[in-house]
């Protein structure tokens, strides 16, 4: 029997002196491009299908004689003007829901904007001291559970006017989650960042803008998202009692006039507007924090 000679294993030659070897790079997975068809299938189609199913269920449930709520077809027939033309103006009080939403948003902008500035500053100060946090946290936790409308009599007695009273209700409702989340974010700043700031001899203003805000941004914008949602809830509730041309007073006036279909349309406007506000604050947070804030 013939014996086959084994070939010696070839050993790769050593690289010349001074040459740097490059490690093999793993192939990166291909990223799927967001094509229009993919966006339609994964993002738009599912909520549209769910909405259609809910409308069909609503239509069937409201078609019986004993139902006290209008069906979707009744909403379309009786409140078509509010749906297709949200910016009509027929008088000082007879205006479209688009104008009413903008009026309410103006008050939210004042109240929430003030709460954002004051809340971030107070939270940044409290987050620097564990003793101050222990002293103020129980008070904040108690005040944040007070319903928005409970503040309305106090604000009316203080300001003697419905407009600043509504803005104050928004402010006092939205400020607590902003303060609490900002303080928690400041407390979570790594000690290494503080050491770097001490080595660079950053003053308080430089530390605030260069270290504190970027590090605590995810916490801050989490509080801002909660705050803007509470602001929108507060203004709708406050306008039901203070009057005016806002979306909240429109719902109360429609209830007194037994216009249930108008109330349903207004609820859709309120929900869509709140969704847009939440997504807007979240998008700003991702831009400011470079993707770390959700």
Can you describe this structure?
By secondary structure, the chain is an all-alpha fold. 70% of the residues lie in helices and 0% in strands. The protein is built from eleven helices and no strands. The protein has helices at residues 36-62, 72-78, 80-84, 97-126, 130-143, 152-159, 162-187, 191-200, 204-242, 247-256, 260-289. The protein starts with 35 loop residues before the first helix and ends in a 5-residue tail after the last helix. It is a multi-pass membrane protein.
Could you tell me the number of beta strands? 0
Approximate strand percentage: under 5%
Radius of gyration: 29 Å
Helix tally equals: 11
Task: Pick out the low-confidence regions.
Answer: none
The arrangement of helices and strands along the chain is HHHHHHHHHHH
Pfam family, one: BPD_transp_1
Transmembrane segments: 44-61, 108-127, 166-186, 230-252, 264-284
Family: Belongs to the binding-protein-dependent transport system permease family.
Keywords: Cell inner membrane, Cell membrane, Ion transport, Membrane, Transmembrane, Transmembrane helix, Transport
């Amino acid at each position: 029997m013939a014996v086959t000679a084994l070939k010696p294993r070839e050993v790769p030659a050593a690289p010349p002196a001074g040459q740097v070897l490059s490690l093999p790079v793993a192939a990166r997975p291909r990223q799927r491009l967001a094509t229009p068809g993919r966006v339609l299938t994964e993002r738009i189609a599912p909520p549209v299908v769910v909405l259609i199913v809910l409308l069909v269920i609503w239509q069937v449930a409201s078609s019986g004689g004993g139902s006290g709520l209008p069906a979707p077809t009744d909403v379309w027939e009786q409140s078509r003007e509010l749906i297709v033309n949200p910016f009509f103006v027929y008088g000082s009080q007879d205006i479209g829901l688009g104008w009413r939403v903008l009026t309410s948003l103006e008050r939210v902008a004042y109240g929430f904007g003030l709460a954002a500035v004051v809340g971030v500053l107070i939270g940044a100060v409290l987050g620097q001291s564990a003793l101050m946090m222990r002293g103020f946290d129980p008070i904040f936790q108690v005040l944040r559970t007070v319903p928005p409308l409970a503040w309305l009599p106090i604000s009316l007695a203080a300001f003697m006017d419905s407009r600043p009273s509504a803005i104050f209700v928004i402010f006092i409702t939205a400020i607590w989650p902003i303060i609490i989340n900002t303080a928690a974010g400041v407390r979570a700043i790594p000690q290494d960042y503080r050491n770097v700031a001490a080595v660079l001899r950053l003053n308080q203003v430089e530390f605030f803008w260069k270290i504190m805000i970027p590090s605590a941004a995810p916490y801050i914008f989490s509080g801002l998202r909660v705050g803007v949602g509470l602001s929108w809830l507060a203004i709708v509730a406050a306008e039901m009692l203070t009057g005016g041309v806002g979306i909240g007073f429109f719902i109360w006036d429609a209830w007194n006039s037994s216009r249930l279909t108008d109330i349903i349309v207004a609820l859709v406007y309120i929900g869509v507007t709140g969704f847009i506000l939440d997504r807007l604050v979240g998008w700003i947070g991702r831009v400011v924090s470079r993707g770390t804030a959700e």
